[in-house]
Design a protein that fits this description.
Arylamine N-acetyltransferase fold, about 35% helix, about 270 residues, about 25% strand, five-stranded antiparallel sheet, alpha+beta, 8 helices, eight-stranded antiparallel sheet
Amino acid sequence: MNVDAYLERVGLPRSAPTVSFLQALHEAHVRTFTFDNIDVLLGQHPGVELPALEAKFVGRGRGGYCFEHATLFAAALDALGFQVERRLGRVGDVRTSPRTHCVVIVSAEGQRWLADPGFGHSLLHPIPLADGAHDDHRGWSFRLARHDSPDTGKAWQLQRLRESGWEVMHTIDELPVHQVDVRVGHHFTSTYPESHFRHGLMLTRHQPDRHVSLTHQTVTVRRPGEPTEHRTLAPGELDKLLVDLEVGLTADETARLLATVDRLVGAR
């Protein structure tokens, strides 16, 4: 991996593999790249091999979803001297949900950390991989709990604090993950007819004072300590938001995405 090009893209200098650098790199990655399923909707996904992801994220400044974020982030950490492992998890009921989320476990300064750069509302900082661990960075509160069960084996549940209380984000297990597992998860997520990634826009970005989430129908803005704003996407508004959120699409991709969204809205 060309880690220097990656560091230039996220705006950080090379440093020793310390916890403080891990925290800074995680936040820089999450703020630099969007979480989105745009390539899935456009039928042009380049896959989850590292050269394709470097070209897409580092070369173009585009974003993607968890399999892409986790693969790129893990490769960067490995090149920078961290010990890394990828893990898969389930979003929703662990008895019925497939393993379609990918995270990175990082070892630094004698502690294992959960790095989760590719979730719709991602952690800004890694969180210690320990039962009851808590992170409250810039007003966003997350906690981790052991969630062992016959359905998952040894597992960890990540939760986010919302106005109504703690909400489960996902449950990850401790099974080893190889690149073929990531390929299979990506293939299922991007091609299975009932996958929700194929039937609606998902686009999120952490901005300095807020987190913005778009679908093909709605805009949701969250600010720490304030009520969530949720409203209908206005006609013609998406084009402007793609620019404001710095999604990095070409003119042709933008036109095709807008046409796709029009079809999705018309089909409802």
